[in-house]
Amino acid sequence: MLTAISVVLFGSCVSDKDSSGLEYMPDMYRSPAIEPYVDYGQIQGREDAELTMQQSAMTPPHGTIPYYGTNAEEVSMMLPWEILPNAVFAQTHGLKGFDFASAEEDTYENDAKSWNWNPLKMEVEAKRNGGNTDRKNLTLANAKKLYASNCMHCHGEKGDGNGPMMESGAYMGVPNYADKKDLSDGQLFYSIYYGKGMMGSHASQLNKKEIWSLVHYIRKFQDSDYDKEAMESVELKDGQKEVTKRVAVSAAPAVEADPEVETEDTNN
Predict the structure, then answer these.
(1) Whole-number average pLDDT of the chain
(2) 3-state secondary structure of 68
(3) How many domains, in total, are found in the chain?
(4) Could you give the C-alpha distances from 170 to 92, 94, 179, in angstroms and in order?
(5) What is the average pLDDT across 84-106?
């Protein structure tokens, strides 16, 4: 018995330092996961040992974006924003990898100020509840979560500028959104995306769609009826139990609702 055990143990040893040798049911205890940034040197069954632990993924070309599907509106929204930050922001707000306007150009007070619409349509869900129709703004519901994790600590739960960081005395001067109704949607986006004043850029934490949803959320702080027209525009047809539509707010260039983005059950 001892001889048999010794044969099995020594037989499992190999000279390759990267090999675990003979394994009993390896998938039970060793992860088969592949590291995304490692080229294992495996090409059609051939292995190049020199490439085994070398990183192969390269930095994407400047200005490229991830694949966001085939919805033209969403892809356009995720492209690099046409309004550039001032060149000073490279030092004051730590922006890296951006194109910049010249230091003399005030793109916030000029270009961003004239951008007075939000390209993100609000997603509104309507469900039949007896003889009534219950509606929910899914875009604002998601924006509320983003606000709680990225903004509330300074701007406060109600957007009044009295977040925990302000109350602790760590920061001063955080504005009350109610006093910023004169800011355009572009200026709100600019402030979150590039940073403004003591607030740094959130471009590395939030994508453009998420930032535009936060712009909607800020507008809701400023006007409780901000999404009322969009909500009321989503109606259930006879036989429909629920429907979800994307609707532009009144300030956007287009105001008509998109076709349904979810299938409706019309058989019950």
Answers:
(1) 82
(2) coil
(3) 1
(4) 19, 21, 22
(5) 89
Contacts 24+ apart (CB under 8 A), 261-267: 261/123, 264/237, 264/240, 265/240, 265/241, 266/239, 266/240, 266/241
Other C-beta atoms closer than 10 Å to the C-beta of 140 total 21
| Matching residue, tokens 């701007």 | 155
Q: Under 8 Å CB-to-CB from 90, ≥6 apart: which residues?
A: 96, 98, 100
The DSSP letter of residue 124 is E
- Of the CA atoms within 13 Å of residue 253, those in its CB half-sphere come to 3
How confident is the model at residue 45, as a pLDDT? 61
How many angstroms from the chain centroid is the CA of residue 248?
Answer: 19
3-state secondary structure of 78: helix
CA angle 68, 70, 76 (to 5 degrees): 65
Contact 56, 39 (CB under 8 A): yes
Q: d(Cα 73, Cα 120) in Å, to the nearest integer?
A: 8
Range of the domain at 183: 84-124+136-233
Residue 115 lies in a domain: yes
Query: Which CATH number do you get for residue 227?
Result: 1.10.760.10
The pLDDT tens digits of the residues spanning 70-83 come to 888 888 898 889 99
Lookup: tokens for 113? 């100020």
